[in-house]
């Protein structure tokens, strides 16, 4: 077993002392990097890139060569799970993800196969173990999955959605059908994430990208409760170290007190919630991650530095010295100039000495 050279990301998630604030970026591997576009070109397309362990490993490491990131994240996609359940994932240029089949009836849900992640998603597990050996202990590797609710939005709508017409219709007209789908997905995600942990993932993030589209009671019933079920089903320790779990509900900052009950070690926040309020609400019960508006990276070096310093001032306002991981409040976009994330990352490391030094 290789020892971890930089474990400040895991330590901060478990609220253990850190020397400086750990930082990574959601979607840190992607189209804003010319070397990513080059490797994707070699692979042919995005899905072929995900399915080839060498290519997936290469693009995972690309942002770590440019920036002093404190964690790597598996290069894959949340929609590999519905794909493995037989829906047929494809991408149309400029249109985002789509499925050949949708899930809209009781029969559609009953027809979903039981997932065996180790065999059905063997290419993901190969990517995890390949990346883990290539990292050679440099930083920890994050595994991930979509939340059942977020996966279900794509499966029921047949792709990306703004209105969530079909899934909300299912939620209010046939809630038992949606519950059956979400339960099936929760079991699939438990199997999938435990397989990632077995293959070498050292922390887990659950992306609930669309939980914030729900009303607060429906959020608990249709999104949060299934994440709670998943967390209860995950292996929490490997090789003598705890596997921290991060729950990220975009738009969930107003429900923090409730989200604490999921059993997650950390909660991710988007940029709409002030970190000083969030730190007071959670009062040391979980760690927090976030929450710079990704659009800040469109600004000048001076404006990025200013925004990062303000974020750290908020994060450490209540005097706590750990339990915080710097990140964006959602994924980095394809339009960011690759010079700008370096300013974000370096400012986090340098300025946090004011509070942790
Ligand atoms: O963070 C990382 O660097 C790891 C890679 C990662 C991808 N997708 C690669 C990707 C992760 C963690 C995801 C998660 C994901 N995928 C989410 C949850 C996070 C979030 O942003 O809310 C969601 C909702 C998806 C579904 C998805 N995949 C969409 C909507 C799209 C198209 C929109 C877009 O940004 O292009 C994808 C495609 C996708 N997934 C790309 C990448 C790098 C772009 C594909 C390309 O190279 O053309």
TrEMBL record:
Similarity annotation: Belongs to the uroporphyrinogen decarboxylase family.
Species: Acinetobacter halotolerans
Family annotation (InterPro entries): UROD/MetE-like_sf (IPR038071), Uroporphyrinogen_deCO2ase_HemE (IPR006361), Uroporphyrinogen_deCOase (IPR000257)
E.C. code: 4.1.1.37
Primary subcellular site in the record, as a coarse category: cytoplasm
Protein name, UniProt field: Uroporphyrinogen decarboxylase
Enzyme class: lyase
Function: Catalyzes the decarboxylation of four acetate groups of uroporphyrinogen-III to yield coproporphyrinogen-III.
Top-level taxon: Bacteria
Reactions it catalyzes: uroporphyrinogen III + 4 H(+) = coproporphyrinogen III + 4 CO2
Protein location: Cytoplasm
Residues the UniProt record annotates as site (Transition state stabilizer): 77
Quaternary structure note: Homodimer.
GO biological process annotation, one example: protoporphyrinogen IX biosynthetic process from glutamate
Domain Uroporphyrinogen decarboxylase (URO-D): 22-31, 142-158
Residues binding substrate, per UniProt: 27-31, 77, 154, 209, 330
Entry GO terms, CC: cytosol
Pfam families tied to this protein: URO-D
Gene3D superfamilies: 3.20.20.210
Entry annotated with the keyword Cytoplasm: yes
Gene Ontology MF terms in the entry: uroporphyrinogen decarboxylase activity
